[in-house]
């Protein structure tokens, strides 16, 4: 059971998290994010923080939203289909960063909180979220660092959670029509309430707070590596896979569009420069071939 006090505490955490992440990224980039507040006709609104055409990021967004509606979309009730169609409230922070340098990976992170009511009127709540890394040129040390940071965040809440959420991430961020992972994974969870409100919220905070330690060292290590047109071309080609996943499979994108969300904020996750090729494969034993062979496979990194 939740009450208005709990909801306000969660909302304040999400707002603080957005500000913390944006400040850390601005320090790494040197350019300020644009802040764009918006309202949703059906109820609620949000704050989109966006950066484009900077030295580090071609596009990046760190969005906060707090929205409500009268009919919970099916995409948000996959774990509890009996709740679909009920009045709901959702809030969270969602980010996607597309660096300019092909050696710096794209990254996604999301933490969210849903509330609705069962048929008997009882409040039903759950947390969800996670983060995943999508490199274009793979570095084992980067993947290990990212996964170790995720594991460290979850371990205080039970040794069983990281293996479970890592597997969930591997299975979720998978392009079924390509039979290919989107990236090297991370952690993912949804419909989470099993630790009770306080501990479930604390676990969600631990995941959100781990984002900057997980990603910023990788970004800073790779953003000044020399690259040319070959690397940029391959980056644009691989970004096509990112677009395919977000439009075809991603529940967050589907929820936003199904619930009448703000299209600009929802599609902020799309990379600005993308290419598709017909039936193309990289040269054998090339760095581009190594991505699929060594990194776009489900493996234990830590």
Structure commentary:
- With 302 residues, the protein is an alpha+beta fold.
- It has one domain (7-295): Coproporphyrinogen III oxidase, aerobic (oxygen-dependent coproporphyrinogen oxidase, 3-Layer(aba) Sandwich).
- Helices cover 40% and strands 25% of the residues.
- It has 9 helices and 9 strands.
- It has helices at 4-29, 140-154, 161-172, 196-209, 211-222, 229-248, 251-258, 263-266, 287-295; strands spanning 34-39, 44-52, 57-69, 88-99, 106-117, 123-134, 174-175, 180-181, 185-192.
- The strands form 2 sheets. It has a 7-stranded antiparallel β-sheet.
- It is globular and about 60 Å long.
- Residues 242-277 are annotated as: Important for dimerization.
- Substrate binds at residues 94, 110-112, 260-262.
- Belongs to the aerobic coproporphyrinogen-III oxidase family.
- It holds the Pfam family Coprogen_oxidas.
- Homodimer.
């Amino acid at each position: 059971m939740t009450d208005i006090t709990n909801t306000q505490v969660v909302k304040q955490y999400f707002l603080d998290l957005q500000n913390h992440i944006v400040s850390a990224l601005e320090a790494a980039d040197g350019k300020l994010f644009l802040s764009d507040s918006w309202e949703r006709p059906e109820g609620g609104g949000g704050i989109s923080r966006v950066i484009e055409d900077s030295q580090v990021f071609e596009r990046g967004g760190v969005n906060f939203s707090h929205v409500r509606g009268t009919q919970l979309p099916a995409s948000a009730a996959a774990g509890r289909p009996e709740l679909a169609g009920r009045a709901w409230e959702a809030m969270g922070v969602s980010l996607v960063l597309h660096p300019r340098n092909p050696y710096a990976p794209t990254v996604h992170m999301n933490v969210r909180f849903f509330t609705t009511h069962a048929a008997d009127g009882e409040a039903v709540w759950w947390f969800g979220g996670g983060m995943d890394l999508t490199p274009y040129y793979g570095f084992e040390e980067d993947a290990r660092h990212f996964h170790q940071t995720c594991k460290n965040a979850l371990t205080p809440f039970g040794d069983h959670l990281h293996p479970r959420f890592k597997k969930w991430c591997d299975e979720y961020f998978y392009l079924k029509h390509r039979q290919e992972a989107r990236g090297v994974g991370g952690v993912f969870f949804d419909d989470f309430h099993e630790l009770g409100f306080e501990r479930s919220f604390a676990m969600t905070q631990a995941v959100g707070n781990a984002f900057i330690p997980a990603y910023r060292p990788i970004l800073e290590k790779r953003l000044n590596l020399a690259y040319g047109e070959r690397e940029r071309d391959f980056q644009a080609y691989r970004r096509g896979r990112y677009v395919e996943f977000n439009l075809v499979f991603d529940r967050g994108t589907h929820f936003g569009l199904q619930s009448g969300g703000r299209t600009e904020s929802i599609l902020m996750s799309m990379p600005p420069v993308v290419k598709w090729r017909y039936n193309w494969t990289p040269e054998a034993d090339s760095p581009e071939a190594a991505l699929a062979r060594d990194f776009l496979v489900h493996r234990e990194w830590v």
